[in-house]
Amino acid sequence: MAALDLVQCDHATAHRVHAGRSHAARGPARDRSVTRVTKPIWFSGVDLDALNGRHAKDINGHIGIEMTAFGPDWLAARMPADGRTRQPMGILHGGASVVLAETLASAAANLCVDPEKAYCVGQEVNANHLRAVT
Prior knowledge:
4-stranded antiparallel β-sheet, Thiol Ester Dehydrase, Chain A, globular
């Protein structure tokens, strides 16, 4: 089964999408011209089990999105490319990849704010699908 990994970070290297490549598991690529973050951007830490549990019964759980890793300024997730996320032609449905991007961006944004004072939701998503994932 192929899987789609997306890494969201807050720098110029905003999105990287990998489809079944061995280097995808190594975490986000870093643009050497971007200053490395030494202090985490998260408001009170990241608990991957809690994040995954929170989303188990919404669309993320239904299509298999799983938060997999994080660093001081990035959060990674994966989504299977299987019958739940493919078009009838057998390729990844573009809407599913947008759900992955929106989920990751919103989850990361919410980890950066005080949940007693604010919450973050997506307002607009624009996606270009450059290549099929099977």
